[in-house]
Amino acid sequence: MRFSYYDRLSPARQRIYRKSDAIETIGLPRDVAPGALVAQIRAALAGQDRAGAQSACQRLVDALVSGYKVPPVRVRVLAQRPSGDYGELHGLYEPEEGRTKARITVWMRTAQRRQVVAFKTFLRTLVHELCHHLDYELFVLEETFHTEGFYKRESSLSNALLAAEASMAAA
Q1: Does residue 47 lie in a domain region?
Q2: Which of 125, 124, 107 has the alpha carbon at shortest distance from 116?
Q3: Residue at 107 is within a domain
Q4: In which order are the strands placed within the sheet that holds 91-94?
Q5: What digits encode the pLDDT tens for the residues 14-44?
Q6: Residues of the chain above pLDDT 90, percent
Q7: Cα gap 129→149, rounded to integer Å
Q8: Is 145 a member of any domain?
Q9: Domain range for 131
Q10: Residue 146: phi, psi to the nearest 5?
Q11: What is the pTM of this model?
């Protein structure tokens, strides 16, 4: 299934879209055991610890990008989501530009109620933004589109991280 904006893309961008759409899964890299890092993110959110969440998110992303053998990306965790007539912004990926390294920004509190974001929502947002980075750096796509394949990759990686945390907790 192609999203409605597909028809408005140029033929070159449609090819990139189709290539992205065809990639449906991404597993955890070999030799990366992220369970404890995922648990640290959960604990930081539960403790409303923004700095702790940022540190744990950065360590998780560092482990993943190292395992995938792609360039690093900086992670920022900010307090309250920005909002406007577009709704609330959950996360933001800014690709590398010149000397400025790629950056992921996620927010740990909702805009309206200023409540800490639910753990799974927060983790999915972090993974979503990481998937944009992987589109450029791992899959070497010229653009990163929200395709059905993109969302399947996001889900597969999020589920793998949650499973790693659960298996670590069960041990």
Answers
A1: yes
A2: 107
A3: yes
A4: 74-80, 103-109, 91-94
A5: 999 999 999 999 999 999 999 999 999 999 9
A6: 81
A7: 15
A8: yes
A9: 31-170
A10: -85, 90
A11: 0.93
